[in-house]
Amino acid sequence: MSGASRERGPAGGEPAKGEGTPRGRVWPRGPFRPEFWRSPLRGPWLTAVFGLVLLAGIPIVALTGLVSYAAYNPRLPGNDITPERGLLGFYLFDWPTHPVWLYRLNQGVHVILGLTLVPLLLAKLWSVIPKLFAWPPARSPAQLLERAGLLLLVGGVVFQFVTGILNIQLLYVFPFSFYPAHLYGAWIFLAALVAHVILKLPRAITALRSRGFRQELRTRLRDTHPEPPDPDGLVPVAPAPPTISRRGLLAFVGGGSLTMFGLSVGQTVDGPLRGTALLAPHGRTYGPGPNDFQVNKTAAAMGIREAETGPGWRLALTGPRPVRLSRADLLALPLHTYRLPIACVEGWSTEQEWTGVRLADLARLAGAADGSGVFVRSLQRGGVFGHASLSARQTADPRSLLALQVNGADLSMDHGFPARVIVPNAPGVHNTKWVRELDFRSFS
């Protein structure tokens, strides 16, 4: 029979007793055949262990991702990176300016925990892969719905992790806009995850109770045996001899997660650990001196010309009393210095000492009323963040600066010379560099 085969037992006859293969069923070749999957480690218990850890970690990754979107203050003009969000933005709230480390912590957890979970996610997918090739695809409407949900769950988590990892590596290879796709994908995946947990949690609890975790960690390779046959078809019908114990597999996956954590945590912790962040695109150094810290986009990449930032540069303050200021004029105003972190959506963050003029002082200079926000425009020509709105709360915070110096030295070109915005607890892209205009206005 071309393209298909009748299932046989190990000796070539009918399926052996207890293997769980229906007599006389016709199977396509390859992974659709139950005997194709032979690892003796697969089974409900191992799958439930991986699932339990992911169930603890993935909701945290999802929640911090949604909070990250709220940090952009998307209700303000120019900040909405997902204008078609509709009801998906029901939870949005006004992003605070303190504690100053909140966005740094949120985004660090989002990215680093996501990377740490990758080995566990791959192990979980490996443990259930026979289920993805179950044949026939559905034998009842209920099973068809279950498999459709499984497709959304697996497809959703793969899409979210792959696009997220590519984004933090600055590999913008998407044929679509990353931000709305990642937001919509998150909600689709979360809906599928909730449905999956409701359906599978009782069975997972039963599987976890079927054997002790500590006992399994003491089980050696020679004592490793397949789990009893299960209705989901995870246990192989013709298992191969084990080449690794379950405790060995758990150690391998756990070691992979610890390695991912160790190679990425330095981008958020910063300091001496920055050099260990080999998985982070910003884990390297940027030269000696006070400006030696991460940059997301260089001046050259954003089309900034030195002639625009030289002596002829002027900052425009737009308000009831429009003002134009040179850099010397700004340096003559009262300057303030604060040590503030700057954190980016890709997960990197650093804390530096910034010196500049308070945005609130510039708002008063332009005659702006109390409670005004500010629309910031940059000299940059490329990218999607050449402008941003800051809320009235952000503008009024005394630590919100138009920074002119960092760590006692003038800003470098790549860090936004001649002036950049630094706002406590704001996403990095809203700390606009190469500022050319501050438009103070009331956002209703």
UniProtKB/TrEMBL annotation:
Q: Where is this region: Disordered?
A: 1-27
Mitochondrion among keywords: no
Which InterPro entries does this chain map to?
Answer: OxRdtase_Mopterin-bd_dom (IPR000572), OxRdtase_Mopterin-bd_sf (IPR036374)
Domain named Oxidoreductase molybdopterin-binding: residues: 312-441
Q: Which UniProt keywords apply?
A: Membrane, Transmembrane, Transmembrane helix
Keyword tRNA-binding assigned to the entry: answer is: no
Q: Name one Pfam family in it.
A: Oxidored_molyb
Residues passing through the membrane, by range: 45-72, 109-129, 150-172, 184-201
Q: Which PANTHER family match?
A: BLL0505 PROTEIN, PROTEIN-METHIONINE-SULFOXIDE REDUCTASE
Protein's name according to its UniProt entry: Molybdopterin-dependent oxidoreductase
